[in-house]
Design brief:
about 475 residues; two-stranded antiparallel sheet; mainly alpha; single chain; about 0% strand
Length: about 475
Amino acid sequence: MQPVYILSLIIIYFCVLLLIAYFTGKNDSNDTFFKANKKSPWYVVAFGMIGASLSGVTFISVPGWVQSSQFSYMQIVIGYLFGYFVIAYVLIPIYYKIKVTSIYEYLKHRFGPTSHKTGAFFFFISRVLGASFRLFLVASVLQYFIFDAWNVPFEVTVILSILLIWVYTFKGGIKTIVWTDTLQTLFMLIAVVSTIFIILNNLNWSISDLLASSEFEKYSKIIFTDDFNSKKHLVKSFLGGMFIAIAMTGLDQDMMQKNLTCKNTKEAQWNVLSLGFVLILVNFVFLTLGALLFIYAEKMGIKVPVVDGSIKTDLLFPEIALNGNLGSSIGIVFILGLIAAAYSSADSALTSLTTSYCIDFLDIENKEKSKQKAIRKRTHIVISAVLVIVIIIFKYVLEDNVISSVLQVASYTYGPLLGLFAFGIFTKINIKDNLVWAIALISVIVTYILNSYSAQLFNGYIFGYELLIVNGLITFVGLLAIKKTNS
């Protein structure tokens, strides 16, 4: 598929998003930007959150992960579902009861201002890195398949990508995103299903032929219980998935900001629970696509792309879609799916980071009314610039599969949030608020040391995604050490 056709498709797609932004951003008040006036239908939010939960990382990186990890990711996804039950029946009622705009206001309510700022800081770092990982992946694909042909620098590709997001979110904020995410989720799911059927048709296979084939069996193992020391062990993956969902959705302003636009607690709970069940099916479809891509590549002699001397399984899907001689239709649905998946996550990240910084750090609600909107708009621009800088840095430092990197970083940055919220919800102990930042920092450092030397310290044991739980426990115990004593 020629680069000019791909670029034309992207431009048309963004024109549609701008049209949605025009109608949803007519009232560009802070209440609209931060809360969508609390009038979002829960089923619209739930459908849009599928795309936000999956993102461009899932769209490309999960299929590319199948070669090395088979379907072990499903163990994590099943854990997600149980995490969503905790979010629905523990966290959401708390957020609605104290009427927060930023969920980290709970920490101020429970412990004090230092805890509030500490929680918001760890979210800020988490989401900047997470959003940058996702956008880096998309920018890399656009660079590899479009802009390299025109000798456009990677840095320009990144700036253009962020600029487009800023343009359609700077007025309507979360209200715009609730509706654009719905459209983008639809495009993403259509792209995945269409790709599967196009490749199957080329191979003269049906779905049942694929699932019954010996080639598919080579990739489709789900349950891993042989080696408890392995990262892929069932117990570690399930528990890791459960707590990743709690932390990366329930304790994440990006994801919860959409939930908080629902009219009431019950509708927000329906939203979260429906999302948990749907994600099981959707992720299985993504993994099935991954297996099919490797089967097709092997049959057709297509090699996994190599960039700067490193094999990039993340690029196999775009390689087959755009250069696999499957016709223009698969290229069109791939580009639409990629952009939809990536930007449904990135746009909400930009908005939630703006919201958190305004509420948690700038205390915008206590500023002069006449200045609040201008503060929000300046913050929106600054956050956009931060994302550009971090994504460009990733080009020079990132080597691992992107989804693996995202989940690994989450184990460090979301751990203190998990410990803080758990301590606040499940104990009535008061703590020395001014020392909370130190406990959170120590927890991250100790977790990093344990992970780096786990094989030597624990007889060959290697941490998987349960490292997040360990991090949260260390924070929890550390908070016990700074409890206030009755004088």
